[in-house]
Amino acid sequence: MTTNTESKNDQEVVITLRNMNKWYGQFHVLKNINLEVKRGERIVICGPSGSGKSTMIRCINRLEEHQEGDIVVDGVTLTDDLKNIGVIRREVGMVFQHFNLFPHLTVLENCTLAPMWVRKMPKKEAEEIAMKFLGRVKIPDQANKYPGQLSGGQQQRVAIARSLCMNPRVMLFDEPTSALDPEMIKEVLDVMVELADEGMTMLCVTHEMGFAKKVADRVIFMDAGEVVEENEPHEFFNNPQQDRTKLFLSQIL
Ligand code: ADP
Ligand code: MG
């Protein structure tokens, strides 16, 4: 896999964070974040627990609100009045650590729910699309089971398929493999690598550094609510500049 940040330089920007700040009450959780993600870029975000990675990802799809600065997603500026929330939810797919599937719905129903209710797609078409993506994540045979009947790795692949059914322009991943047993991590990472290879714009919070080396165009290191360092993966891992980055890498590698 080559890093192709250069060829993406003149491409359309899909996500912009400009001088973005967020507080939880008095606690300044995100400090002046600047980030630009171009179409087709794969970005890995890492950093110690509590550094603000989830909060940043959640601000991008409006699960959390920021207080200062701008967030622009696919040309839509996220504002206080939540007018744009529908657009963002349609365009941005999100995969969480704990899958967040609906337990009382089958795998297929989990996948068809949003296309039918948000995109007003006829059931038959939604089911065809769902089966296509369940095939892509290699579990079409599980379509009529309930999430509780599947392994963690299978549930996470359902969660990815469910997001893809909405035809998102960007996929956000928040530690998608950290709740999985080791033998299931690879089956989820393989699906993510395939997505990356197909050109999906991806922002992934993960500590799977093998994944970062393989697919990331850029790795971003956060600590205490700040972007401390960012670089293409080879430089990031072999030549970290900041002491905090060096310390973090020495702990996880
Ligand atoms: P990370 O994903 O990097 O582990 P988080 O974004 O989850 O970090 O959390 C960043 C900081 O914000 C932590 O100190 C956490 O305790 C705090 N925090 C997260 N969510 C909330 C919340 N809803 N209310 C108050 N503080 C929060
Ligand atoms: Mg987190």
TrEMBL record:
Cross-referenced SMART domains, in alphabetical order?
AAA (SM00382)
- Keyword DNA repair belongs to the record: no
Q: Where in the cell is it found?
A: Cell inner membrane
What Gene3D superfamilies would the database entry show? P-loop containing nucleotide triphosphate hydrolases (3.40.50.300)
Topology of this chain in the membrane: Peripheral membrane protein
What CDD domains does this protein's entry cite? ABC_HisP_GlnQ (cd03262)
Residues in ABC transporter domain copies:
15-249
Q: Name one GO molecular function term.
A: ATP binding
Question: InterPro entries, alphabetically?
Answer: AAA+_ATPase, ABC_ATPase_HisP-typ, ABC_transporter-like_ATP-bd, ABC_transporter-like_CS, MetN_ABC_transporter-like, P-loop_NTPase
Which keywords annotate this record? ATP-binding, Nucleotide-binding, Transport
| This protein's record includes keyword ATP-binding | yes
Q: Which PANTHER family does the record match to this protein?
A: AMINO ACID IMPORT ATP-BINDING PROTEIN (PTHR43166), PHOSPHONATES IMPORT ATP-BINDING PROTEIN PHNC (PTHR43166:SF4)
**So what family is this one in?**
Belongs to the ABC transporter superfamily.
What is the protein name stated in its UniProt record? Amino acid ABC transporter ATP-binding protein
